[in-house]
Design brief:
The chain is built from 3 helices and 5 strands; from the N terminus they run βαβααβββ. The chain has helices at 9-14, 26-36, 38-43; strands at residues 2-6, 18-21, 48-51, 54-55, 67-71. The mean pLDDT is 95.
Length: 77
């Protein structure tokens, strides 16, 4: 099961720092967390979702050792 880490607004929307997920692809993961956490579903399309530190498409398979980071947009200054 992949480990998903939530940052900033994504952490607030889920109430979690991280969790283990069993979805087979990134697209399945996106759909599942959007349904489970409606607040996250509203911001997820604007988030950078990285698998192993890289942006990948929704067809990417997720393995047991994969680390998925959900990074909402943020402003710097």
């Amino acid at each position: 099961m992949a480990v998903v880490r939530y940052f900033a607004a994504a952490r607030e929307a889920t109430g979690l720092d991280s969790e283990r997920r069993s979805e087979a692809t990134l697209g399945e993961l996106r759909r599942a967390v959007s349904e489970q956490f409606p607040g996250l579903g509203g911001i997820l399309p604007r988030c950078a979702v990285l698998v192993g530190g890289s942006r990948v498409d929704d067809a990417t398979s997720l393995g047991a050792d994969d680390l998925v980071d959900v990074l909402p947009p943020f402003a710097g200054g």
